[in-house]
Amino acid sequence: MRVTALQSTTIADGLIGAIGHTPLIRLRRASEATGCTILGKAEFMNPGGSVKDRAALAIIEDAEARGLLKPGGTIVEGTAGNTGIGLTLVANARGYRCVIVMPDTQSREKIDFLRMIGADLRLVPAKPYRDPGNYVHVSRRIAEETGGFWANQFDNVANREGHRLTTGAEIWSQTGGHVDAFTCSCGTGGTLAGVAMALKSHKPDVRIVLADPEGSGLYGWIKSGDLTPNGSSITEGIGQSRVTANLDGAPIDDAVRIADAEAVEQVFDLMTHEGLSVGGSTGINVAAALRVARDLGPGHTVVTILCDGASRYQSKLFNPEFLKGKSLPVPPWLDER
């Protein structure tokens, strides 16, 4: 038996130097099922455990460059969790304080983790964006009242620029330019937009497909210009019913809508057959990549994002009672416990 491993002679300069440069993983079952090469960018391998580390670093470095963040300053942000984790860790490394506003419906694991790493966590009731009590608006008001820097991940285009310069550039380099399509879900839209801009600058006909959960309006926006949401989803941190500044003008070719049952099936399939422990947004992404690959036909290369790890969703996504309560499939190894 031959064992191979990624080789690196680079020593990262602290946490900041360890963000990015994640591997592409060939998803064997998805590739074999479609006759395509389906690759997942392993963003759960970032030091903060998710793709949001990249946005956090890009936003903070941009704010520093523009003089909006001074030594010992405070960063304020509204987040579903992962961006808050990334911001808090980068803030710790840079000597800042972090105030994180989060809906109280998010997973217990993310709430506990944010408190553990030193975030000043403010939980608020989950309310739609149009409501002034929405977590994004609350975070903006706190920043205004305290003089903190509002990260504003949804409408701060430093987010997508960071992905254009890093995530997209890495995918192009790692595939040697042999990429036919890219798909991922959107919260802020930074990852999809930034990667799309990077890939299309090299290859204009690369296909960019937005993966959307039920309960989000972005699928309708791409398909017909209608942002009206439809249904609901258990996924956290993705789905949107407005066009953020990061999404505005992004070169997106198409969209697919993925139901929770289809996403959960992919999460459990990746766990049991490929040893990849991932969260619900990754399930959406992989399900979308399968659809895109089937549409393109055999022989193509499709890239998607493996956003974060499963451990942040244990109390929901890996809770048999929760899954049954949502009429979602429960894998045998969970149901037997």
TrEMBL record:
Gene3D superfamilies: 3.40.50.1100
Cofactor: pyridoxal 5'-phosphate
CDD domains membership: CBS_like
GO molecular function: cysteine synthase activity
Keyword Transferase: yes
Keywords associated with the record: Pyridoxal phosphate, Transferase
EC number: 2.5.1.47
Domain Tryptophan synthase beta chain-like PALP: 18-308
Enzyme's top EC category: transferase
Top-rank taxon: Bacteria
NCBIfam families linked to this entry: PRK10717.1 (NF007989)
Protein name: Cysteine synthase A
UniProt source species: Acidiphilium iwatense
Lineage: Bacteria, Pseudomonadati, Pseudomonadota, Alphaproteobacteria, Acetobacterales
